[in-house]
Amino acid sequence: MAYFPDIERIQFEGPTTKNDLAFRHYNPDEIVEGKKMKELLRFAVAYWHTFRGTGVDPFGAPTMQRPWEDGTDSVDNALRRVDVAFEFMEKLQAPFYCFHDRDIAPEGATLAESNAILDRIVEKLKAEQKRTGIKLLWGTANLFSNPRYMHGAATSCNADVYAFAAAQVKKAIEVTKELGGANYVFWGGREGYHNLYNTDMRRELDHLAKFLHLAHDHAKSIGFKGQFLIEPKPKEPTKHQYDFDSATCLNFIRQYGLEGICKLNVETNHATLAGHTMMHELQVASDADALGSIDANTGDLMLGWDTDQFPTDIYLTTQCMLVILAQGGLAPGGVNFDAKVRRESFEPVDLFHAHIGGMDAFARGLKIAAAIRKDGVLKDIVKHRYRSWDGGIGKKIEKGKASFADLEAYMLKKGNPDPNDSGRQELIENIINRYL
Question: Is 100 a known active-site residue?
Fold first, then answer.
């Protein structure tokens, strides 16, 4: 049975096409910086928003028209969603997908029942992956929706809840391995606090670190070689989450000996909530050799919450790709569309429009970033700006061959520093505009 009968496979038709259901810029086999576009972008569809989103918000009921849904969270409905998902991803030419365990399979009355249900769905996912060639970018466990996680999961004040979360993650890692997942993500949806008066923060952070080490131990024991990723977010649903931003996560990783175990999965809307740009968050992670993957979306700057809209801003995608290309790409990570259609865009075809727009936006950003890098304009500007560090006293400082006493003697002899150059910020912005 076809669930999108009126939609053909989405093809690249170029910038001049009038077809709304075609790619204008995303050409999967186009070579950019020596690699195919599909290899550099590694697009993934988010199972939760795309196939489980209903359009519900705090002020209104669900709006989405999803003819394949029967109004239940039954196993039969979950199995049918797998057919829907793979038809959608095949027609979109999306090479990857991502999921939480509870996205793909309903929760049972007990842990054992939940695991058995999950196994049934995973069996079908595995068959569809084999049939289509679509792969799992990453899996994860939902440790935030069930009321048992009201105080957190790995940071819960209830040791039994911690143990349940560990068992759930154990199973999620196992099914991720079974499905050939390239990564495993930890998003601490409720790993944080609302009130410090009733919180032992040090103990909770110690417990969270222990949880990650235990997860890594289990992954090694079963031969799972995928990359572990922590996803930063500053708030929502907790007042203050322990994975606040890239810098906070990196500090946590270093403090608890998780270097070489965990990298970061950075999301645009989370960067905004933390008061940063996405480029800043990516650069912080990349400079620490910890940028593993990204969730591609955007927020509304007039709103103060996580709207998870599809990315259409070419400046944003260009900035992302400048950082990603500089580190040679994201593999084994990728570009996951953790984004949802707006509540008012309720027809199934809107799912295609949204993903096509996001994929085209990132393809344009990729090509623009590659052109900027080819011409070397930013590299030349940065090199010129920091030229005083390439020789003389600057080089001695960087090589550790100058003490404070040496620097004092240098300035006493010289008298005054060389004058500063202009930052030329407006010129740089003008240059970037020329490429867009």
Answer: yes
Integer Cα distance of 102 and 83 in angstroms: 17
pLDDT per residue as tens digits for the range 232-249: 999 999 999 999 999 999
- Phi first, then psi: what are they for 286, rounded to 5°? -65, -40
Beta strands in 171-234 (DSSP E): 183-186, 192-193, 227-230
Residues sharing a CB contact under 8 Å with residue 7, sequence separation 6 or more, in sequence order: 21, 91, 349, 352
Percent of the chain, pLDDT > 90? 98
Within 8 A by CB and 6+ apart from 301, the residues are: 272
Enter the pTM of the model.
Answer: 0.97
Active-site entry in 49, 100, 280, 355: 100
From the candidates 25, 49, 101, 103, which is the catalytic residue? 103
Tell the burial category of 386 from Cβ atoms under 10 Å away from its Cβ (0-12, 13-18, 19+). Answer: exposed
Of the candidates 323, 304, 307, the one whose C-alpha atom is nearest the C-alpha of residue 378 is: 323
Is 103 assigned a catalytic role? yes
Distance CA 269, CA 235 (A): 11
Q: Which residues face 44 on adjacent strands?
A: 96, 336
| pLDDT tens track for 402-418 | 999 999 999 999 999 99
